[in-house]
Amino acid sequence: MRICEKYLFCTLIGLFLFSINGFSQNTDASLDQRVEELLAKMTLEEKMGQLNQLPGDIQTGTRVKNDPLAKRIRAGEVGSILSHTNFDNKMKLQKEAVKNSRLGIPLLFGFDVIHGYKTVFPIPLAQAATWDMGLIEKTERIAATEAAADGQHWTFAPMVDIARDPRWGRCMEGSGEDPFLGAAVAAARVKGIQGDDLYATNTIAACVKHFAAYGAAEGGRDYNTVDMSEQTLRNVYLPPYKAAIDAGAATLMNAFNTLNGVPCTMNDKLTTDILRKEWGFKGMIVSDWNSVGETMVHGAAVDEADATAKCLPNCDMDMAGETYMKGMKIALRNGTVTEQQINDAVHRVLRLKFELGLFDDPYRYMNAARKDETLEKAEHREFAREIAAKSMVLLKNDGGILPLKENSTFKRILFIGPYADSREHKDYMSFWTLGIGKDATDYDTSKVVTPAMAAGPALENMGFEVTTKEICINATCTEKDYVTMINSVAESDLVVVCVGERGMECGESRSVSDLKLNRNQNNILNTLGRLGKPYVAVLFNSRPLEMEELFENATAVVCAWQPGYEAGNALMDVMTGKVNPSAKLPMTWPRIQGQIPMYYNHLNTGRPQLKFPTLWTSGYLDIENTPAFPFGYGLSYTKFDYADLRVSKSNMKMGESVEVSVSVKNIGELAGDEVVQLYIRDVKADISRPVKELKGFEKISLNKGEAKTVRFTLTTEDLSYWNHNNEFKADPGRFEVFVGGNSRDVLQGDFNLMK
Ligand code: GLC
Asked: Is the peptide bond prior to 451 cis by the omega test (within 30 degrees of 0)?
C-alpha cells in the first residue's frame, strides 16, 4: 500500500473510532494530550460549565435553588452533580450531557460515601478504633464497589481531619487525634476506594478532605475559626492529608474554615505552596459546599469576581454555590483571572473523567444488572458485623462480668434505654448515610439490627431469659417510664442499659456545647444506680462523652460507637465473647468537658502537674489533669503482659535507625488480639516537643499462654519534626521510647541521637 493510501487508511480508522462516541478511544495517546484536544474545542462558557458542580436529589448544605438540571446540562453549564441517589435519573442526566450538549462531555457524579454506601458500616472513628488497616481498606473497597455499581464516580472521602475536641460533630467522620494513626488510616482508605486502577468499574475517585485543619475549629464549633502555628499545622494536622496524597488520592476538597485568617478555599500558602509545589499534587480540587461563595461571607472577597480570582488558583470546581458561574467572566475581563488558569482547572476536571473511562463509555458505571447483584450483598453485611464488633471498645469490665457465659449465675437479662431498640433518627448510624434513602433522613428502619432484635436469638439459646423495655423514648421520661424501669429491673438479674447519641446528632453541623448524655438519660442511669443491680452500659456514641458517674457505677462499659446496620449482632458477638474485644480509643476520653482540649501528645509545659492537687503547676483546682481513659486504651477479655523492652543501641547516629523490641504474652484464659503501641519523646530538642508521640503500632493475635516479640524500627525521619524555623529535622539528644497497650501504661527505654 502506498504511503498516502496508508495515511488515508489510518485517518479513516481514527475518524471512525472518534465517531463511535465522540472522542478517540482510550488509545496510548497521553490523557493530557486528549484533554488538550478537547479543551481546544471548548468555549469559555463550556469551560466554566465544567467547573460547576450542582446538587442532585439530596442537598447537604445551605439550600440552593434547583433549576431543572437537564436544561442546565444541555446548555453545557454543569460538569458534575453531587448527592444524586436515583440510578435511573442519573442515567437520564448522563444522556442529556452526552447526547444533547454541544460537545457531549460526560458528567461526573460525586457522593458522600463516608461509612458505607447501601451497606452501612461503623462510623469512621469506630473503624479507626480497630487500628486494623486491612479491615478499614476492605470497608472502603466494599463501599466503593457498591457506589460504583450505583453510578457514582467519585466519593468525598476520606475525611482525615485531626480532631482533639469532642464537642465537634465531625469527630465521627475522621480517625481521632493522632497524626500517625490518622495517616495510616488515610492511606488505607484511599487504597480501598481507588483500588489500583481508577478505570475499573468497581473503583471510584477518592477526595481527601477537608484541607486543612478543619477539625481544629475553636470551641469545637463547626466551621469556626482555625488559628495555629505552622509547626503545629505541619506536625499534627497535615500528615494525614499528605499520606492520602502519597497513596494516590485523585482529588482533594478545600475546608470551610479560615486558617490563620485566610479561608482555605483561597489559601495560596496551603494549596499552591504546600499541596501543589511542595507535595506535587496534580489532582483536581473541589470546594466544599459553596465555600467559594463563603469567602465573601468570611469578608475576604468583595464579590463573585473577587472570590473567583482568589479561589481559582486553589480550587478547580465550585460545589453548589455557582460563584464561578457568576464571577469568572468579570474576573477574566478585569485580568484577575487568566485563560491559562481556567484551562488548567478544566484540564484537571476533564483528566479525571478520562481516567475514569467516562469518555470511552459514559454509562460504564450504570449497569443495572451489576447494580442489582452488588448492592447490599450478604457478604457485605457479614463484614459490617465483623468490623462493628472489632471496633467496639471495652472500657470497663469489673469482675469479668463479660463475656456472658452459659454457666453465669444470672439468668434474667433486661435490655433497657432509648437505644435498646430504636428505629429512628438513623440511630446506630449517622447523618452521613445518604445513599440508603430518598433524602438525608429517609431510610428503611428494618435494615438496622438493634440490640433488642439480636439479644433474643443470641442469648436465649445460651439459657438466658431476655426482656426488652423501651423507656424514655421521646426525650421525656414519664412517671410510667420510671415505674416500668424499677419493676423491670426488680425482675432481672443483669441490666444492659443502652445510652448515647442519636444518629442524626453526629456529623456535620452537629457540634454540642454539652457532652453530658442528653434527653434524661442521666436520670435513667441515676435511678438505675440506686436499684442495686449490676448493669452493663452500652454506649452508642459518635465521640467521647462526659459520663463520670456511669464509668463509676456501671459494672461494665462497652463503647459501641455508631456501629451501622449490624449494631445488635455485633454487640452480641462482643457480649457473648464470640469476638474478644481488641479495639483501642483513637481519641482521649476526658473526665469532664471542662478539661477540653485534652489530648495525649501535649507539650510538657514548664510546670507539669505530677500530683493533684499541686499549686503553681499546670492543672485545675477541681479535677486532676488526667482523662477518664487515655488515647490507645481498650480492654480485652484476656490479659497481656509486656516485658523485656529492648533498644538495639544506646547511641544512634544521624541517618541511622534503631530497633525497639518488646515481649508480649497472653497471660489470660482466652485468645485475643492486642494493639502494641510504640511512642517516643524527644526530651532534648530545639523547641518543646510532645511528652509522647505515636510512632508505630502492630496488632497481634495471641492464644492463651502464647508470647511474641514485637519489633519496631525508628528511623531518623521518624525522630524528625517541623521546627519553628520551618525546618524538618531531628535534633541530637536523648529520646525516650515507650511501648504498651495504650499511651499511659507503658514500658520505657531510651537512647541518644548523635550528631
Ligand atoms: C458538606 C461537607 C463535605 C461534603 C460536601 C458534599 O458540607 O462539609 O464534607 O462532602 O458538603 O456533601
From this structure: no
Contacts of 312 (CB under 8 A, 6+ apart): 324, 328, 331, 337, 341, 342, 345
649-676: pLDDT as tens digits:
999 999 999 999 999 999 999 999 999 9
* CA angle (409, 410, 413) in 5-degree steps: 160
Q: Is the CB of 112 under 6 A from ligand 1?
A: yes
Q: What is the whole-number distance in angstroms between the Cα of residue 165 and the centre of ligand 1?
A: 20
Smallest CA-to-CA distance from 358 within 145, 140, 148 is with 148
Residue 288 Cβ contacting ligand 1 at under 6 Å: yes
What is the distance, to the nearest Å, from the Cα of residue 494 to the centroid of all Cα atoms in its chain?
35
Cβ–ligand 1 distance for 215 under 6 Å, the answer: no
- Rounded CA-CA distance 590/495 in Å is 26
Residue 167: all three cell numbers together: 464537642
Q: Whose CA is nearest to atom 11 of ligand 1?
A: 289
652: cell is 544512634
DSSP β-bridge partners for residue 708: 664
**Is 287 a pocket residue for ligand 1 (Cβ < 6 Å)?**
no
From ligand 1's centre to the CA of 46, what distance in Å? 25
Distance in angstroms (rounded) separating the CA atoms of residues 653 and 517: 52
The finding on whether 209 has its CB within 6 A of some atom of ligand 1 is: yes
CA–CA separation, 629 and 79 (whole Å): 48
SS (H, E, C) 274-295: HHHHHCCCCCEEECCCCCCCHH
φ/ψ of 307, rounded to 5, equals -60, -40
Residue 151, SS3 per DSSP: coil
Asked whether residue 379 carries a pLDDT value surpassing 50, the answer given is yes
Determine the atom of ligand 1 nearest the C-alpha atom of 112.
10
Please state, as a whole number, how many other Cβ atoms lie within 10 Å of the Cβ of residue 135: 19
Exposure string over 664-674, b if 16+ CB within 10 A, otherwise e: bbbebeebbbb
- Angle, alpha carbons 580-461-407 (nearest 5°): 65
* pLDDT tens readout for residues 254-292: 999 999 999 999 999 999 999 999 999 999 999 999 999
Q: How far is the CA of 289 from the centre of ligand 1 (A)?
A: 6
Q: Which triple of cell numbers denotes residue 173?
A: 467522620
Atom 10 (ligand 1): residue with closest C-alpha? 156
Q: What is the DSSP string of 337-361?
A: S-HHHHHHHHHHHHHHHHHTTTTT-
481 in active site = no
